[in-house]
Amino acid sequence: MKKIIYNKLIKKNYIIKKKFKAGLILKGWEVKSIFNKKIEIKNSYIKIINKKEIFLINLNINPINNINKNLIKKKNRNIKLLLKKKEINYLYKKSNIKGNTIIIFSIIIKKPWFKTIIALCKGKKKYDKREKIKYKLWKK
Predict the structure, then answer these.
(1) Per-residue pLDDT reduced to its tens digit, 50-74
(2) Under 8 Å CB-to-CB from 88, ≥6 apart: which residues?
(3) d(CA 94, CA 72)
(4) CA R_g for the chain
(5) Quick check: pTM over 0.90?
(6) Is residue 30 packed enough to be buried (19+ CB in 10 Å), middle (13-18) or exposed (0-12)?
């Protein structure tokens, strides 16, 4: 497994409860762009529709220069994720609880496939962030 992109802000702003691996349904030009690391995952999030389908929304993939411009229709299209039914139901139940969100953690290559690691998270408050800073200082 090789990590392509990693969301650095997730540990600062969220408490991670559980992680899942999910497959991605991508087009050819998107695969080439991800290999060249022309992707931003900071503002992306995950949404569950009709308790059956799970989508990655607001993932910004910039095309590389040598791609035919006729193939590219949307840069910020909704990308479908591949998960088992049990996992989708679990995420749906837990994401409806106040304060919980589902966020993309990283994108990895596992042999010929692209996979994402998504995380069920709870947002940190300001005082949680301050306590973490205090703890680090005390530890030093």
Answers:
(1) 888 999 998 888 888 777 767 666 6
(2) 48, 51, 52, 53, 54
(3) 35
(4) 17
(5) no
(6) buried
